[in-house]
Design a protein that fits this description.
This is Stage 0 sporulation protein KD. The protein has 328 residues and is an alpha/beta fold. The chain is built from 11 helices and 12 strands. It has a domain of 196 residues: Rossmann fold. Bound molecules: adenosine-5'-triphosphate (ATP).
């Protein structure tokens, strides 16, 4: 298992992926949804960077933006020196699956139920490589072995519904890594799975990250899930990163009031006395259709003052970032 200390925090020129001031809006008939409002981060080679936050804060939109699948209206995404945000559709389609790949929460929605696992895996490999059918089949079987699936030849002939949820997610991971991408984006990869299988899939992603030298962007609503595998954590609220820190530092010394609230609501056997209800955060996130001026967390924040009606300053130092008036 890696720890935050093992990986150097990225300098701009060493980052495998750089995201700067990303802005994404979904224009609906009656309103515009401000899903991502200026997200900036760097991803170091072989790093696991987690993005956490509650439902609707824009995590999946960031993930999909990295694959060129959202209406980006501002900012820049650079992958391995290539400016993704300036690419046309055809060029982006070549990058997707080849240099950057994604796995989703529910593999059944990404796998075609009427095609065998082998057919889908072989097609994905052939789409991005010059391999012939036989070589692609051999590579597919090898990939299934690498994601811990025994009897690969039989697995290739099976249909997705014949596999368990955990096995389907392994197939998706095999497919995502089959072209050895520089970055793997995992959007809630374990949310639909049983707890024991969740741990296995997270361990597998971590092991393959090491073996393949892939950097991982791990999206989750559950900060407890990333405690052991992420090198750094970004906490998102209302379309922005409000705090970013190495994992151990974030857990030991959470600075943004929202991060503190999130951590207080993670179950811990050493903290909650028997019979006491878990602390929960009061209130709910603002509508992404109409974000308030200033800090979007201020209505729920016990530290809020008049200052919070204007945009909070960003404080950077010691390898971490916080966006809050408390650290002016
Ligand atoms: N295709 C879309 N069209 C319109 N609005 C969208 C679309 N996708 C997401 N949204 C809206 O954008 C905002 C951010 O959604 P997003 O799915 O990125 O958040 P999330 O943090 O990943 O939440 P969840 O975990 O529930 O998916 C939400 O208000 C959501 O309703």
């Amino acid at each position: 298992m890696n720890t935050a200390a093992e990986i150097e925090l990225p300098e701009n020129d060493t980052a495998v992926l750089t995201v700067r001031d990303l802005v994404v809006r979904y224009d609906m008939d009656e309103a515009s949804i401000h899903a991502v409002n200026g997200v900036t981060f760097d991803l170091a080679p072989r790093e696991t960077y987690a993005i956490v936050g509650e439902s609707g804060c824009g995590k999946s939109t960031v993930a999909l933006s990295l694959l060129g699948l959202t209406p980006i209206v501002g900012g820049e995404i650079v992958l391995d020196s290539a400016r993704l945000t300036e690419m046309g559709r055809a060029e982006m389609a070549r990058v997707r699956g080849h240099k950057i790949a994604m796995i989703f929460q529910e593999p059944m929605t990404s796998l075609n139920p009427v095609l065998t696992v082998g057919y889908q895996l072989i097609e994905a490999i052939r789409l991005h490589t010059s391999m012939g059918k036989r070589a692609a089949r051999e590579h597919a079987a090898k990939m299934l072995g690498r994601v811990g699936m025994s009897d690969a030849e039989r697995r290739l002939r099976q249909y997705p519904h014949e596999l368990s949820g955990g096995m389907r997610q392994r197939v998706m991971i095999a497919m995502a890594l089959s072209c050895n991408p520089a970055v793997l984006v995992a959007d809630e990869p374990t949310t639909a799975l049983d707890v024991t299988v969740q741990a296995q899939i997270l361990a597998l992603i971590d092991q393959l990250r090491e073996e393949f030298g892939t950097a991982v962007v791990l999206i989750t609503h559950d900060i407890g899930v990333v405690a052991e595998t992420a090198n750094r954590i970004a906490v998102m609220y209302a379309g922005r990163i409000v705090e970013e820190a190495p994992t151990a530092a974030l857990f030991a010394d959470p600075r943004h009031p929202y991060t503190r609230g999130l951590l207080a609501s993670v179950p811990r056997v050493d903290r909650v006395p028997d019979g006491q209800p878990m602390p929960t955060m009061e209130g709910s996130a603002p509508s992404m259709r109409q974000l308030p001026e200033g800090c979007p967390f201020r209505a729920r924040c016990s530290h809020s003052t008049e200052k919070c009606e204007t945009d909070p300053p960003v404080r950077v130092g010691e390898g971490r970032m916080v966006r809050c008036w408390l650290y002016e």
